[in-house]
Structures are given as structure tokens and as C-alpha cells.
């Protein structure tokens, strides 16, 4: 069977008349805006950026034009292939709502992986078929082929994968893209730290591909909540139809625009983070209770340690919070440790060196 978007989209979404505002329908420079029942007088607080103070009484741009133009220039992806969400978590939820019929359809996830795919599915009453990654945290292609049925609408591939940190091989992702007729979401939240290149420039080759990225990681803007999806323009149009009209607030739009000017700073941070990751890896490997540090293409390391639960509690007592992944399948005795600043990483290693079982 060929990829057929019409067939994949839920009937109610295909027939949806999306919410439209008067400003969607007007493209000139407005002189008097009396269409949206805003407070015409002003706002009690303003948004201050670079000594400019912007009023907050007007609704923000629902299509985020300026922001997407900037992202388009940076990423080399046309404006109409970009969706902006309230974090990539919004994109995950919106995709499930577009393609998956509650109570009937299913998605495939590849555990251990990012938890929100299955949470968003559960909220929408969508069954999750889990096909565990193998011991190297790569895909079980045959297992995925066996799990796919006529109700499978989306496969979520996280690359680099959270919590294992490795990239999924390009070759395997392409096998899935070429052989699965549903939507393949490749979550590239950590792509800036990876040796592997983004798939977002391959949208033309794969009509079923959706790539997720976020400003929450390398860009250092987690608090703004801005996630991105790149896909064919029909898929992006559907996502825009389903999202809340003003899903990205004006502070996020304006501050993200400012942040996106700082590419050099961000590139330096990425470089430093990778250096620190390598240092941490070397130090962690020397600890007597470390069994394995998994290779990472992300800004964290998955570490298998004898007595991981006790080490986790010990670190907590010392005021150091890492993520205990020991209880999730495929990650027995594993802690996931985010790469911190040089100072934080030193504190972590010194504290671990002082640990006795
Ligand atoms: C793989 C992955 N995808 C998405 C997200 C969430 O990103 P956002 O902050 O854009 O919602 C995370 C956050 O930890 C993540 O690990």
C-alpha cells in the first residue's frame, strides 16, 4: 500500500472547519482593531526586551509568521513545512489527535524511550504497542513489522533516544520510512548534540515523515515552551487546524525570536557540553561501581551502576538530583545523568568518588 494522507486522517479532522479569527482573514496594516474583544486601553504589565516595552493587551499572531520566517532561515525549511507548538509535547498530542481514532487505532513506541508518547496516547484512549529496542538500543525492525496492523497510525522513533542517549541508525529509520504507510515521527529533541545529521532536510523524500525539534535543550529556552514539527505542508496544515488558535503566546514568540539570533553562543554551548560529556564519561568509567557508560549523542549519559538505587538515594541526600531509570525495562541499574556545567560535573564526580556501598 502507498502512503495515503487522506486515508490516514480521522474523518472528523478531515471535515473540521478550523477556528478562524478576523485577523486570519485580513492581511493589510490594521488602523483600528475592534474585532477580538480585547482591552483597547492597555495592559497592566508590559513585555520588556532590549529596552523596548511591548503591550500585552492584543492576542498574539496565531500563525507565528515572524518566528517561522526566522526558523525557516536557520533550518533551511520552508515556512509552510513548520509547525510551532507549546513544547514538542503539544506536537505529539496534536499528531495523535489528527491520526488516531480513540478506542480503535494504535501507535508503536520503542522503549525505553521518552514517556510522553504513551502518556499522550493514553489521554486520547489510543492503544500503545511497545517494541523494545535491542541491547544496543537500536530498533528491532522485524518486531516492528510484526507489531504493525491496519490500525497502526504512528511509529515514534526518538533519535538521539531518551534515556539511552544513542542515535538510531539512519539506515534503520529509512527502512521504517520506506516500508510503513503510516506516520513516522522522528523526535530529534537532542539532535544538536548528535554526530548524526537531522532528517528534517529529507521531507521531500518521505511524505510520511514528521521531525520534532525543540528550543528546550541546546537552545536553552525550556521555560518558553517552544517545540517545532517539520513535515509535508498538508500535515502541517492539519496540525495548524487542530492546535489552539493562539498556542504560542507573545512573550514566547518575541523572546524566541531574540534567542534565535544567538546561534554562535548556542554553538559554543553545544561544543562545551560535548566536551563535558566526554569528560564525565571518562570519569564515570573509572568509578569502581560503574558497569557501563552507554555511548551518548545527547546532553546526558545513561550509566549502569552496581547498586544504582542506593547511589541515587545517596546523591539525593547530597542535594544532587539525577534521573533513576533502574525500574524501566531495558535500563536495569541505570541512572540518567544530564551534563551540567563544569563545576556541577566536578561536584557530581567528587561526590560519587566519596561514595561507599
Ligand atoms: C525526546 C524528547 N522529546 C521531547 C521532549 C519535550 O520537549 P519540549 O520541552 O519541547 O516539550 C523531551 C524532554 O525531555 C524529550 O526528551
Question: How are the secondary structure elements laid out?
Answer:
Blueprint: H1 5-8, H2 11-14, E1 46-49, E2 52-55, H3 65-75, E3 82-85, H4 88-99, E4 106-109, H5 116-123, E5 127-130, H6 141-147, E6 152-158, H7 170-179, E7 183-187, E8 209-214, E9 227-230, H8 233-242, H9 250-259, H10 263-285, E10 290-293, E11 300-305, H11 308-317, E12 323-324, E13 334-338, H12 342-353
Parallel strand pairs: 4-5, 4-6, 6-7, 7-8
Antiparallel strand pairs: 1-2, 3-9, 8-9, 10-11, 11-13, 12-13
Helix pairs in contact: 4-5
Pyridoxal-5'-phosphate (PLP) binds next to α4.
List its traits:
single chain, 357 residues, four-stranded antiparallel sheet
Describe the structure.
This protein has 357 residues and is of the alpha/beta class. It is 34% helix and 17% strand. The strands form 3 sheets. The chain has a 7-stranded mixed beta sheet with strand order 3-9-8-7-6-4-5, with helices on both faces. A 4-stranded antiparallel beta sheet has the order 10-11-13-12, covered by helices on one side. Helix 4 crosses helix 5. The longest helix has 23 residues. The protein starts with a helix and ends with a helix. The model has no long low-confidence stretch (mean pLDDT 96).
Question: What can be said about this structure in brief?
Answer:
The protein has helices at 5-8, 11-14, 65-75, 88-99, 116-123, 141-147, 170-179, 233-242, 250-259, 263-285, 308-317, 342-353; strands at residues 46-49, 52-55, 82-85, 106-109, 127-130, 152-158, 183-187, 209-214, 227-230, 290-293, 300-305, 323-324, 334-338. The protein has 357 residues and is of the alpha/beta class.
